[in-house]
């Protein structure tokens, strides 16, 4: 799907009550009950998005977890304020079009949002999008926006609908130059679009944009724009700096995201050392007492080495996990193609066979009905001698058609269930492999955190020695702030200050270790559950696909009216349908076994989505003389 197709699909929200639009655009009051988004409203909208029929029944078998939702559609609900979306942290697409929203707000937690539709609202200012750094599509069609602004952090934006708003400043369009990935912009219906020089000005200042109002900008228009606006060069230097800055910022955001995914954010270079003193009031005081610079430099370097070691091992573990996952997806894709190819070939062959067979059945039905009609209308005294042959041949064709269709159903279902069992085994292997990688890394993490605690303990001892001695014999030093004289002259107060700083540092190390372990545990639980959910959904979709194929082709047979003229029993296509003649329904025994397997698989799936114990307990620390912590066990 190209940008143009995406844009046209997104603008489906434009099908709205025209009188309501007229009142809003004219500034007239709209008689609507103003509503704030609530959790029950969200649940209701999610239920409405579920499919109907058997597919919906399968979807409702899994308990709705609002935190796992990726798409939410809430249109035509007179919503006036965006609120209560805090749990939807995995949301990637949000449609709030056709409401009465006046302000963009309370979206900061939706950090995974890629698609945001706020068209047909009452928004006057672009704001509240700073945290949506993954946003690629933004639709503000038919609002009241007058200025392009506050999109500096949305550097991944590729498509932007701002048509039918209040933009009236031609120079303001240069703002889009900094959005280096932007490729499609809709501006039609704004006052600025009425300017005779609109297209050429816009193209000259935004050469990276390929589509304007869903139309590709011709090269001839670009050439004319460059000739008409030669002076763009004098602005280019300044604006190109913004472009380069945007590129740098985007690269930095990607690196930060990578570190976050590897659970090593905040551990590079001196970041963790700085964190120790960020909220350490006592430590900041101690840094002002002199004669500790060498000690601080030495132990800062030891901290840097330890945290860099954690960082590097964490990045290696992340790469190992990603390599395992990539290899898994490649292998599974190849295996799915390999397993489904025979079935696809068989269904294609049946389609060709079915087309000709149904044609012959229609012909025979026509002959039978014509002869019966002639007798009923008195145009013939009796049925022709070959009439029984017509019926016999019709029965033969239908039985062969149904048998072939049944054989296809049997083979596809059988292969899918075998493949499903293999997938469960492969998923278990991948899950164990990922757990092993994580367990090994957490062992290393605990060892390095033990080293950090030992370094902190040594630092505490050196500071006790240096500062207590310094406080007793160097009080006359003029470099000490006067307000700290009471501290260095009181040995107990100074010792207490050093100990409080030490306790704070140990607490920060403990907190960082616990935070990483908890995040890893959550990721691992989500990953394990995700494997089961994905396979469950794939298997369900495949079974539905098979059933739809069989039911569709059986309905084609019913449409021929051949079954109305059958002179012998035509068994059902699928073994799960009612069958009264045991001799012609042998698959029923096999199908009972299949249903039992399905029930077992359903039970296993429900058990699998319960969080598992992530890793085996690991001893904290590797430095025997240093006190270790045992409060957090995964």
From TrEMBL:
<dbReference type="InterPro" id="IPR050576">
    <property type="entry name" value="Cilia_flagella_integrity"/>
</dbReference>
<keyword id="KW-0282">Flagellum</keyword>
<dbReference type="InterPro" id="IPR001611">
    <property type="entry name" value="Leu-rich_rpt"/>
</dbReference>
<comment type="similarity">
    <text>Belongs to the DRC3 family.</text>
</comment>
<keyword id="KW-0969">Cilium</keyword>
<dbReference type="InterPro" id="IPR025875">
    <property type="entry name" value="Leu-rich_rpt_4"/>
</dbReference>
<keyword id="KW-0206">Cytoskeleton</keyword>
<keyword id="KW-0175">Coiled coil</keyword>
<keyword id="KW-0677">Repeat</keyword>
<dbReference type="GO" id="GO:0005929">
    <property type="term" value="C:cilium"/>
</dbReference>
<comment type="function">
    <text>Cilium-specific protein required for cilia structures.</text>
</comment>
<keyword id="KW-0966">Cell projection</keyword>
<dbReference type="InterPro" id="IPR032675">
    <property type="entry name" value="LRR_dom_sf"/>
</dbReference>
<keyword id="KW-0433">Leucine-rich repeat</keyword>
<keyword id="KW-0963">Cytoplasm</keyword>
<dbReference type="Pfam" id="PF12799">
    <property type="entry name" value="LRR_4"/>
</dbReference>
<protein>
    <recommendedName>
        <fullName>Dynein axonemal assembly factor 1 homolog</fullName>
    </recommendedName>
</protein>
């Amino acid at each position: 799907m190209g940008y143009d197709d995406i844009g046209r699909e997104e603008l489906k929200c434009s099908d709205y009550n025209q009188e309501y639009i007229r009142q809003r655009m004219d500034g007239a009051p709209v008689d609507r009950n103003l509503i704030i988004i609530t959790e029950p409203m969200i649940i209701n909208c999610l239920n409405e998005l579920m499919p109907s029929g058997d597919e919906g029944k399968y979807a409702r078998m899994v308990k709705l977890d609002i935190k796992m939702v990726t798409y939410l559609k809430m249109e035509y609900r007179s919503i006036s304020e965006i609120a209560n979306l805090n749990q939807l942290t995995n949301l990637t697409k949000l449609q709030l079009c056709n409401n009465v929203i006046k302000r963009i707000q309370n979206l900061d937690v939706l950090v995974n949002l890629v698609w945001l539709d706020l068209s047909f609202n009452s928004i006057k200012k672009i704001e509240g999008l700073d945290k949506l750094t993954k946003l690629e599509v933004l639709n503000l069609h038919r609002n009241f926006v007058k200025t392009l602004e506050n999109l500096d952090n949305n550097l991944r934006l590729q498509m932007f609908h701002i048509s039918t708003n209040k933009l009236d400043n031609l120079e303001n369009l240069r703002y889009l130059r900094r959005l280096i990935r932007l490729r499609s912009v809709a501006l039609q219906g704004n006052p600025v679009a009425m300017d005779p020089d609109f297209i050429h000005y816009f193209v000259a200042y935004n050469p990276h944009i390929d589509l304007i109002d869903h139309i590709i900008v011709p090269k001839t228009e670009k050439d004319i724009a460059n000739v008409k606006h030669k002076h763009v060069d004098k602005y280019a230097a300044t604006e190109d700096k913004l472009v380069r800055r945007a590129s740098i910022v985007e690269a930095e955001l990607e690196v930060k995201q990578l570190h976050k995914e590897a659970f090593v954010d905040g551990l590079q270079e001196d970041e963790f050392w700085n964190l120790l003193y960020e909220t350490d009031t006592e430590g900041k005081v101690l840094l002002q007492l002199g004669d500790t610079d060498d000690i601080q430099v030495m132990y800062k370097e030891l901290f840097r080495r330890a945290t860099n070691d954690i960082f590097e091992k964490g990045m290696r573990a992340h790469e190992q996990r990603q390599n395992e996952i990539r290899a898994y997806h490649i292998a599974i894709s190849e295996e799915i193609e390999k397993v489904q190819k025979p079935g696809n070939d068989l269904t294609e062959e049946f389609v060709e066979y079915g087309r000709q067979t149904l044609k012959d059945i229609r012909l025979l039905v026509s002959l039978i009905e014509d002869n019966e009609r002639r007798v009923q209308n008195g145009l013939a005294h009796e049925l022709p001698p070959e009439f029984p042959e017509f019926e016999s041949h019709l029965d033969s064709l239908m039985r062969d058609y149904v048998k072939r269709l049944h054989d296809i159903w049997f083979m596809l279902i059988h292969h899918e269930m075998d493949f499903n069992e293999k997938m469960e085994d492969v998923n278990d292997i991948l899950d164990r492999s990922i757990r092993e990688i994580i367990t090994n890394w957490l062992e290393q993490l605990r060892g390095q955190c033990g080293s950090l605690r030992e370094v902190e303990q040594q630092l505490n001892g050196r500071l006790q020695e240096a500062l207590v001695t310094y406080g007793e014999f160097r009080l006359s030093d003029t470099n000490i702030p006067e307000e700290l004289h009471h501290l260095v002259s009181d040995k107990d107060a100074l010792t207490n200050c050093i100990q409080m700083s030490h306790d704070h540092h140990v607490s920060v190390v403990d907190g960082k270790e616990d935070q990483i372990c908890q995040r890893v545990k959550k990721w691992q639980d989500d990953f394990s559950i995700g494997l089961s959910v994905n396979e469950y959904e794939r298997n369900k979709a495949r079974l539905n696909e098979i059933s739809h194929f069989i039911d569709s082709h059986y309905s084609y047979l019913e449409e021929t009216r051949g079954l109305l003229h059958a002179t012998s029993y035509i068994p059902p296509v699928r073994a799960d349908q009612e069958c009264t003649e045991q001799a012609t329904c042998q698959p029923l025994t096999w199908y009972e076994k299949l249903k039992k397997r399905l029930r077992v698989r359903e039970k296993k799936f429900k058990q699998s989505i319960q969080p598992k114990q992530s890793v085996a307990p690991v001893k904290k620390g590797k430095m025997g003389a240093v006190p270790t912590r045992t409060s957090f066990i995964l």
